[in-house]
Amino acid sequence: MNQGRDSEAPPGRALRLMACDAEDLAVLAAHLQDSILRVGDMAFLPREKRFVLVLKRFDWLSAEGGAPQRAQTGLHFDHVRKVALHGFRQDRPDDILNLLNIEFIPGDVPSGAVKLVFSGGCALRLEVECLEARMADLGPRWRVRHTPGHKAE
User: Fold this and answer.
1) How confident is the model at residue 13 (pLDDT cuts 50, 70, 90)?
2) Over the stretch 14-69, which tens digit does the pLDDT of each residue have?
3) Where do the DSSP E strands lie in 35-79?
């Protein structure tokens, strides 16, 4: 995992991670699980071949310490050729999505697809020339009362 700071940083410390393969992406996805975002807080920039999102990341490390927090976090993917949405619409920018997982689906090496899975059956698929993702805490952090939970299937 390429990173600007240690992924086991103390709670409350800004986190910066980079993913260049499926294993790196799994670590990044674990830190982003249960992030929430508005549909309007994501954009495809085709000229730059970049897809960007701003999320409210649940800080799982702070929750382990008994003081759960969220942090405003930026995430972007480079080398993006195409974006497909499922289960939500761009013309509803205030709709809220809850991120459950991010996975890489290999194609002809080094290309493939990045799939962002949200609750409620929503998903986003990015066709990429190669996997390159970066996330960084951007600023505000705040305490939250509840830790996200998941129902057993």
Assistant:
1) confident
2) 899 999 999 999 999 999 999 999 999 999 999 999 999 999 999 988 888 788 89
3) 36-38, 42-45, 50-59, 69-78
Containing H/E element for 86? strand 80-86
Whether 18 and 25 have beta carbons less than 8 Å apart is answered as no
Taking only Cα atoms into account, the Rg of the chain, rounded to an integer number of angstroms, comes to: 15
Give the pLDDT of residue 150. 61
User: Based on the number of CB atoms within 10 Å of its own CB, is 109 exposed (0-12), middle (13-18) or buried (19 or more)?
Assistant: exposed
Overall size of the chain counted in residues: 153
What is the 3-state secondary structure of 18-41? Answer: EECCHHHHHHHHHHHCCCEEEHHH
Which pLDDT belongs to residue 2? Answer: 43
Q: Fill in the amino acid letter for 5.
A: R
Name residue 71's beta-bridge partners.
57, 141
Residue 43 token pair: 């954009």
C-alpha–C-alpha distance, residues 104 and 113, integer Å:
6
| Phi, psi (deg, nearest 5) at residue 119 | -65, 165
Predicted TM-score (pTM) of the model is 0.87
* Residue corresponding to tokens 């927090």: 69
